[in-house]
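Subject: Sanity check before I submit

Could someone independently write out the structure tokens for this chain? I want to compare against mine line by line before I put it in a report. The sequence has 443 residues.
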Amino acid sequence: MGTGARSGPLVLDRDGAELRNGHLGPRLPRRPPSFLTGPGAAALICVVVLVGALTALICTDEADAVPEGYTVTGLDVSNNQGKINWDSVASRRPYFSYAKVSEGTGFVDQRFAENNAGAKRKGLYAGGYHYALPDKSSGKVQADFFLDHAKYTNDDRTLPPMLDIEWPGANSDSPSPCYGLPDATMVSWIREFVDRVRVRTGRTAMIYTNTNWWNQCTGKNASFGKNPLFIANYSGSPTPLPPGWGNWAIWQYSDSGPLPGDQGVFSGSLNELAALAGTERTSAHRVVSSKADLTGDSKPDVVTVDRSGVLRIHPSTGRGASGTVTAGAVRIAGGFSGMTLLVGDLTGDSKADLVVLDRSGVTRLFPSTGRARPNAVVGNGLRIGSGWAGLKLSLKNVAGKSQPDLVGKDGSGIVRLYAVTEKAAAGSRPGDLSKIGTSGWVE
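---
Independent answer below. Compare away.
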């Protein structure tokens, strides 16, 4: 990862050395790391191409195909890929992306901002990574440098900050393979980095590495099993894993393929990827609605609220296969703890809206925008009533119109109808209060 990734076929020169740039521009060493070679290495299919007087050997890797059984695909990129066409990337339907942010304390990837924004604009879960130079400065210093430029945000679309810890780059002046550090010193450096990420972001840092490097340079340390693992292995399998990890989160299975940069797969479902991006910070969710269509695609979505008051939509995919019924959670807004929440189409535009009754008795309507984008699912709240504290609200189609009305029952059992008018979307309160039931009514 830190040494960049090619897009397109592997090209070898006459000596068999790969013609590829590293993470800062250097050519890769002619002897690649051991996880790219040996009995388990993927086969290459090569042809000789003549271009005038020049001869080139063009090879494609059988490992470029997505590993069987994994459907949640993604990529990791850096400045080496140049300007990426994220519209083209999205056409291949990946679900996640990691982009390089920094290296040591002397390099900031100038493509990070556009790569991060481009991935999120196309609906991918996105994260940033730091290429470690543990012989140059402390883990804390490099973590701060990384986070200062990553501009991490808790928007439920951002994957955990990631530490890329592996072999020194081809043109690095750092001693290979372990930067000249004893095992214990390397372990302390990694611990300092991930602890600093936790302090500053509240997140558990992802660790990218390869088992061969890890075993050699940390003394087979097994104390980082709680950190999500991004494992690099091109042999056709993500295993064996480094000690301490019973499973992996993302497997980088190839450095070439249909997507720019390195190719990867997530170990679980799309819902589990969404959880990795956001719900690690929240408590259990309560379902507010599972029948209303907020996005206007004629498929019912799931709306949930957690104990911290964050409201989310889980858009329907329209597919019934396990793990794909809903797409990843999208944040609607926060601050709804302890409030009455209703979902229904009050504005008559075939998109479900949000009705919120707060503790003070003020009721607001949040019209749906039809967009499943973080913090943009609904528009601004419109005040449609006050003095409704203590009412138990529900949405009922009492008047026989296409949109429902608000029905409120007070503590004495009296039921009142708040007829919704077409002006609701413009901020008017519902129609006149009508008493439609006497004391003792029950639902």
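---
OP: Matches mine. For the report I'm noting this point. The first strand starts at residue 10 and ends at 12.
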